[in-house]
Structure formats: structure tokens, C-alpha cells
Design goal:
The complex is a heterodimer of chains A (189) and B (250). Chain A is mainly alpha-helical and 189 residues long. Chain A is 69% helix and 0% strand. Chain A has a single domain, classed as Ferritin (Up-down Bundle), CATH 1.20.1260. Chain B is 42% helix and 20% strand. Chain B has 10 helices and 10 strands. In chain B, strand 1, helix 2 and strand 2 form a beta-alpha-beta unit. Classes of the chains: A mainly alpha (189), B alpha/beta (250).
Chain lengths: 189, 250
């Protein structure tokens, strides 16, 4: 592939990641693509539930609560994008009603415990997106996972700022599905 | 003469009604014939010992009902089987009455050293699963696909006709691992260890129940289904390890 064709296909894949055209590559999905997408949808639902409960916990008000609202919106959009991807693979994506999320007691009783738990979920999700971005079989999928990872990293920064800490890491840890799953399995119920 | 005729008529009516009521009483006492998924064996048998059961893979039971088997009720481990019969008007509208989860079981001695479902990919194992047409077999394939482990299907040494055959083979050490419903691991818990499957990879396992259209005892069959949907029936299912009726289908 020459440079011009590569750039064109990258641009196409980029547009795909924004609007859904990664579906154009349907049929090429590997076992691993499917696993990352399934795990991603489920973890995004978990994250959405986390943000909803964190808002209901009223530990954060005003502009600080906005970070949680934005996170909730992002999680909803991410889950939708990954569900669309799974449908394009011919799979039935999970839905929120499939889960009975199980947060440890007192998770949302203080700002500190809320942030601490949220960071566990975000790190697992970010790690899985990093791995998926490197291993996905099709450029379009890789770009989608990279975008999801970038958004998740932004949320990680915003959430850790709420507790007055900085979570900046030079090299966030990439995780295969097995490792990322083990990190949040207890919350997924 | 008129009086004699009237008396005879009264006797005839009384005799007929007595015959009818004794037939009714017999029908009342007769057990219903319930065709149910193999995974319901323990819970249905203990919930109501008075009925006549036939337990097998839901796909096999579906075929039998299609071929005219004399069932009053069909309880399936997958909506697919009941819905197909409903489309053919062979059962009344099915309802969801419980749910389940899939687990991996290994013999207590665990000769293959399996600690997680991912070990199936890493280690040489003799895996036993149910056939693709059996609900538990279809769910197993869904789980493996979701986990990105479809490649372990190459390690399958035997495909069984129902879930009890899978749990039996693992319990007797004839296989290193097998996928069964969580409720089927319970009866063999002395012989096997249970390995959880991540919640995000679980398939949607829904059980449906319906009155068979050819049943001559539809009222009794409907009443029995009401019992299994009642708090008492649901308690019996939960005590056996089944999950409540999922929110999405309530």
C-alpha cells in the first residue's frame, strides 16, 4: 500500500470511528476483536452505572459533578459504538439489564472511595483498549479502540483531579482481556 | 306410565352425572405429563412429585412434541425451542419462568490443572460439551465466542445430548472439563470443582414454559404453570440455584 492509499484508508477508518463506518470491515473480526468488544460494552455499562451512582451519592457538586456527567455521557456513547460493532460481527451485544452490578459497601459514601473505585474501572478499561488498539485485525477497529482509549484516559485524568491527585502515568499498563476482566469482575456481579 | 318414565329419566341422569364426575375426579388425580429440560430434573421433581416428567435436551423434547408426543406442558432451557413450537401453533404463548448461568466444571482431582476458563486455551485438555442443537451446547459456543476462545472447540472430545451427560462425564473423570449450568454443578458438587465464567461473557439463559396445544388438560396445565410462576414456585427455583426472571422479560 502506498502512502496516499494508506492515508486515505486511515481517513476513512477515522471517519468510521466517528460515525460507525468501521462496520465496512465486518466479517473480518477475529476471536480477540469480539472478546474486546464484548468486554468493552460490559465495562462501559459498569462505568455508566458508576457515574450515575457517584452523582446520586452527592459527594461532588457544581463543576465537579460535570466531570461525572461527561463521563456518563461518554460511557453511553462508547457502549453504543461497541454494540454497533458487535452487531456488525453478527453477535448479540449485551444490554444493561443483563447485569446486576455489585459495588462494595461505602463505595459512594465519600469522595475518596468514589474516586478510588472509579479509577480501578477506568484503568482496566483503558488497559484493554490499549491492547485492543494494538491487536485488532482491521485498521478501522484499531482506530475505534484507540479513540475509546483516549477518551477513557481523559476521564481518568478528570476523575483523579476530583480527589486532588494527579494520575498522570508515562506508560499506562496495557491489559489483555483476561487481566482487565479479572480487575473488575467483582463489580460486574 | 308417565311417572315411571320420569323416574327412569331421573335415574339415567343421575347415573350419567355420577359417571361424569368419577371421570372428572380421575382426571383430576391423573398426573400431568410435563416435558422439561434436563437441567430442571431436580427442581421440578422435588417441587411437585405428583406429576409425570420426561427430562431430556430441549431440542429432543421439541422434536417429540412436534411428532405428537402426549405432553401437557413443555419447559425449555432456551426460548428458541418453545418459540418455534409457538410459531407452529403446537404450544400456547410461552412465558419466561426462570434463568440460569453457565459455569465450567472440572473433576475434583483436576488432572489438567485448570484454574480459569482461559486455561482451556493454554493447556492440553479433554473438553466435553453438549451438541450445538442442545441449548447448553449453543450457550457454550456463545460463551467461548464472547471470551475469544472459540479455538478451544478443537479440544472437544465428546458432544453430549444433554447437560446431565456433560456433568456426568466430568464427575466420573472421563473428561478434564465441561460447560454446564450452575444448577447442574450442584448435584455433583462432591465430585467436581466449579470455575466461574466472567459476567460479561455470560449468555442470556432464559427458560420458557408453555401449555402444549394438543393437551386434553389445558386448564390443569395452565394452573401448574401459574404455580411455577407463583412466589412458592419461584422460591423453589431460587433454592435450587436458578436465577429470578430477568428484568427485561418481566
Amino acid at each position: 500500500m502506498n502512502r496516499r492509499r494508506f492515508l486515505l484508508s486511515s481517513a476513512g477508518a477515522s471517519a468510521a470511528a466517528l460515525g460507525g463506518p468501521w462496520i465496512g470491515a465486518a466479517g473480518a473480526a477475529t476471536d480477540e476483536d469480539i472478546a474486546f468488544a464484548n468486554f468493552g460494552v460490559s465495562a462501559e455499562f459498569l462505568l455508566k452505572d458508576f457515574y450515575a451512582k457517584a452523582l446520586a451519592g452527592k459527594q461532588f457538586r457544581g463543576p465537579r459533578a460535570n466531570a461525572l456527567r461527561q463521563g456518563r455521557t461518554a460511557a453511553t456513547k462508547h457502549a453504543r459504538a461497541l454494540s454497533t460493532l458487535l452487531v456488525s460481527f453478527g453477535d448479540t451485544p449485551p444490554v444493561e439489564q443483563d447485569f446486576e452490578f455489585a459495588w462494595p459497601r461505602r463505595t459512594f459514601s465519600s469522595a475518596q472511595t468514589t474516586v478510588k473505585t472509579g479509577l480501578v474501572v477506568l484503568r482496566a478499561l483503558l488497559g484493554s483498549y490499549q491492547w485492543a488498539a494494538a491487536s485488532a485485525s482491521v485498521v478501522g477497529y484499531r482506530i475505534l479502540f484507540a479513540s475509546l482509549g483516549a477518551s477513557t484516559a481523559q476521564q481518568l485524568g478528570a476523575l483523579s483531579a476530583l480527589s486532588g491527585q494527579t494520575s498522570a502515568r508515562s506508560f499506562p499498563v496495557a491489559m489483555d482481556v483476561e487481566t482487565a476482566s479479572a480487575a473488575i469482575e467483582a463489580y460486574l456481579g | 306410565m308417565r311417572t315411571r318414565v320420569a323416574a327412569l329419566l331421573v335415574i339415567a341422569v343421575l347415573a350419567a352425572s355420577s359417571l361424569a364426575s368419577s371421570a372428572g375426579a380421575r382426571r383430576q388425580a391423573d398426573p400431568l405429563t410435563i416435558y422439561a429440560a434436563a437441567s430442571l430434573t431436580e427442581v421440578f421433581s422435588s417441587f411437585d412429585r405428583a406429576q409425570r416428567y420426561s427430562f431430556a435436551g430441549s431440542n429432543a423434547l421439541e422434536t417429540q412434541i412436534r411428532n405428537g408426543a402426549p405432553a401437557d406442558i413443555f419447559a425449555s432451557a432456551a426460548p428458541l425451542n418453545t418459540q418455534r413450537l409457538f410459531q407452529s401453533r403446537m404450544v400456547e404463548r410461552p412465558v419466561t419462568f426462570t434463568a440460569n448461568r453457565l459455569v465450567l466444571i472440572v473433576p475434583r482431582s483436576n488432572p489438567a490443572g485448570i484454574r480459569s476458563v482461559y486455561d482451556l486455551r493454554r493447556k492440553p485438555v479433554k473438553l466435553v460439551i453438549a451438541g450445538a442443537a442442545v441449548p447448553v451446547g449453543a450457550y457454550t459456543r456463545t460463551v467461548l465466542r464472547k471470551l475469544g476462545l472459540s479455538s478451544v472447540l478443537s479440544k472437544v472430545v465428546s458432544q453430549e445430548s444433554d447437560v446431565k451427560a456433560v456433568s456426568g462425564k466430568v464427575a466420573f473423570g472421563q473428561a478434564d472439563a465441561g460447560f454446564v449450568y450452575a444448577t447442574d454443578a450442584r448435584p455433583v458438587r462432591e465430585q467436581v470443582s466449579v470455575i466461574r465464567i466472567p459476567a460479561w461473557a455470560q449468555p442470556r439463559i432464559r427458560y420458557e414454559i408453555a401449555v402444549v396445544s394438543r393437551s386434553s388438560r389445558k386448564a390443569a396445565a395452565r394452573a401448574w404453570i401459574k404455580r411455577i410462576l407463583s412466589p412458592g414456585g419461584q422460591r423453589a427455583l431460587r433454592n435450587a440455584g436458578f436465577l429470578p426472571i430477568p428484568k427485561a422479560t418481566r
